[in-house]
Amino acid sequence: MADKKQDELYKDALSVSLRYISHRDRTEFEVITRLGKDGYPESVKDRVLAFLKEQGYVNDRRYTEYYIVCYKDRRSKRRILQELKNKGVDDELLNEVVETADIDTSEAVRNALKKQMAKRGIHNIDNISYNEKNRIMAALFRQGYSAEDIRKHMEIYD
Questions:
Q1: Rounded to 10 degrees, what is the CA torsion of 136, 139, 145, 149?
Q2: Helix, strand, coil proportions of the chain in percent (round to 5)?
């Protein structure tokens, strides 16, 4: 009797999980968290996750690599890493993928700088005040870009 109830819970949890990952790729942590919110017991969550991993529906390495490819031109490296950590990607896996990935965020810094300049109606960086330049740098720094990258791109901005 208890096995039948467990099997029904498993089927329900699997159905919920498949619907959840059908919208977009998810990490193991996101799937487990989702099932936890629905109140499924640990044994059911573990079975579902094992099945999803075995079938290749959930793969944190693939997710991490794809996430980096998608966002390296729009976000800072620091922000990308923080977002992946928030999604439950293991630190060891994250370090492995980052070592092999080519994360050049210079395009992202350039785009963010352009956006900050346009937002302030500035067309020439040489004609702005010291305070305005500091505000732009602070905004970019808050977005996760390093001070060195910001300064370098402000010097070559045209």
A1: 10
A2: 75, 0, 25
Burial of 35 (0-12, 13-18, 19+ CB in 10 A): buried
Residue 79 contacts residue 40 (beta carbons within 8 Å): no
Q: What is the pLDDT of residues 63-98, one digit of tens each?
A: 999 999 888 888 888 899 999 999 999 999 998 888
Answer yes or no: are the C-beta atoms of 107 and 73 closer than 8 Å. Answer: yes
Cα–Cα distance measured from residue 10 to residue 61, given in angstroms and rounded to the nearest whole number: 25
**Are the beta carbons of 53 and 59 closer than 8 angstroms?**
yes
Q: Which helix (H) or strand (E) holds 104?
A: none
pTM (whole model) above 0.85: no
- How is domain 2-54 classified at the CATH fold level? Arc Repressor Mutant, subunit A (1.10.10)
